[in-house]
Specification:
Elements (H helix, E strand, L loop, with lengths): L1 E2 L5 H5 L8 E2 L3 E4 L1 H4 L2 H12 L4 E3 L13 H9 L1 E5 L9 E3 L3 E4 L3 E2 L4 E2 L14 E4 L2 H7 L10 E4 L10 H4 L1 H10 L4 E7 L16 E7 L2 H7 E2 L4 H12 L11 E8 L5 H15 L6 E7 L4 H10 L13 E4 L5 E4 L2 H18 L4 E5 L1
Parallel strand pairs: 3-4, 3-5, 5-10, 7-11, 11-12, 12-13, 13-15, 15-16, 16-19
Antiparallel strand pairs: 1-2, 6-7, 8-10, 9-14, 17-18
Helix pairs in contact: 10-12
The structure holds iron/sulfur cluster (SF4).
Length: about 375
């Protein structure tokens, strides 16, 4: 079942400004351990307020997520919210270059349906949305990680889109509040959703950078299911950055342009995106850019073709260059010439239109 946000007049008149529907799972399961946690019990109250049926499992193992085919497993999993405790391995934080010094997770899995999804091949098993009830302990654990002599950054959205499930979890609000009084620490996360209003008033102390993932409309409309439209995301970004006196959140913000693809007329298509961004960020703003071109691995391609057998996503190895990592794993990226041409275009556009914006990396 899906219910929509209350429509605003612009939502009803302009399909391209449509807010994302709030995701409502068909099945919500709690493990006994998760319900021992006060944070888990709060999620239960919230889920029950939405009148979603709640199942309490007999033990801490999730079952019943496999269908007859991979596609069925995908459908079952993507409509299931599981509230569990993160395992002990979640307390050993790993770096996540070039994005941040460390990553930690509020949840694993995402309710959207992007046909290039980054989670394919990086998360094992059915793509159920698992939310961690022991979040307060996960947050406390970040205090054990600090790099000497510099602000230590933490990325919270490697395995989930935290805003896509926030109405049910409030995990992101909890995390922003926690980081607001962590000296020399900085929180980062990214989303393709737009329901930012409940998070605008949080006293974040400038320690959380919201990033919104954007793409040319032609790419987003074709490949990003269940997310907010690009236009609605840009409006959300504006609200996040506006000063409090103008009803905004006064957050530092960022744009993650991903996955960049050399689709037909890509310069024009991405110029339109920059036009819209420029029109909406017409005030002084602390803004970063991260530029990520499309890539895939043999493993991610296999998973994506199971999930989206009719996808129009281009994943033709013959047209790609191979990039190997130090462990021998390989990924398929665009050719050096295409990369050079695209990089030049994106740097030029950003430097011209957002002279105070900071490009963090191109990959
Ligand atoms: S929003 Fe991100 S995590 Fe969610 S489906 Fe899309 S690519 Fe995957």
């Amino acid at each position: 079942m899906q219910i929509s946000n209350t429509p605003t007049p612009s939502d009803t008149h302009n399909v391209f400004e449509r807010a994302a529907k709030l995701w409502m799972p068909k099945r919500v399961v709690f493990t006994p351990d998760a319900l021992d946690e006060p944070f888990g019990r709060k999620i239960r109250e919230r889920v029950e307020e939405y009148k979603l049926p709640v199942e309490i499992l007999k033990n801490n193992r999730l079952t019943g997520l496999r269908g007859e085919t991979e596609r069925e497993t995908y459908k079952l999993s993507k409509s299931t919210l599981a509230i569990v405790n993160a395992s002990p391995s979640a307390f050993r934080l790993r770096p996540i270059p070039p994005s941040a010094d460390f990553q930690f997770h509020l949840a694993e899995g995402c309710p959207a349906h992007c046909q290039y999804c980054y989670l394919a091949g990086s998360l094992q098993g059915p793509p159920t949305i698992r939310v961690f009830a022991n979040l307060p302990l996960i947050l406390k654990n970040t205090q054990n990680y600090r790099l000497p002599g510099k602000t230590t950054s933490f990325e919270a959205s490697c395995y989930t889109d935290p805003l896509g499930i926030e109405h049910l979890t409030c995990s992101l609000a909890e995390t922003i509040k926690f980081f607001s009084n962590q000296p020399e620490k900085h929180l980062r996360f990214v989303t393709k959703f737009d329901a930012v209003d409940p998070l605008l008033d949080i006293d974040h102390n400038g320690r959380s950078r919201w990033r919104i993932s954007l793409n040319a409309n032609v790419v987003s409309r074709r490949l990003e299911g269940g997310t907010a439209t690009v236009n609605a995301r840009i409006k959300a970004l504006r609200k996040l950055a506006l000063p409090r006196s103008e009803g905004g959140g006064n957050y530092p913000i960022g744009v993650v342009l991903a996955p960049i693809m050399p689709v037909a007329n890509w310069q024009e298509e991405y110029s339109l995106l920059f036009d819209e961004l420029q029109q909406n960020l017409d005030f002084p703003v602390d803004l970063t850019f991260e530029l990520i071109t499309h890539r895939f691995t043999p493993g991610s391609k296999e998973v994506l073709l199971d999930w989206y057998p009719n996808t129009s996503l281009e994943m033709d190895e013959a047209g790609r260059a191979v990039k190997r990592n130090k462990f021998g794993g390989l990924k398929y990226v665009y050719s050096a010439d295409t990369m050079k041409e695209m990089k030049h275009f994106f740097y030029q556009q950003i430097n011209k239109r957002f002279p105070d914006g900071k490009i963090l990396y191109w990959t």
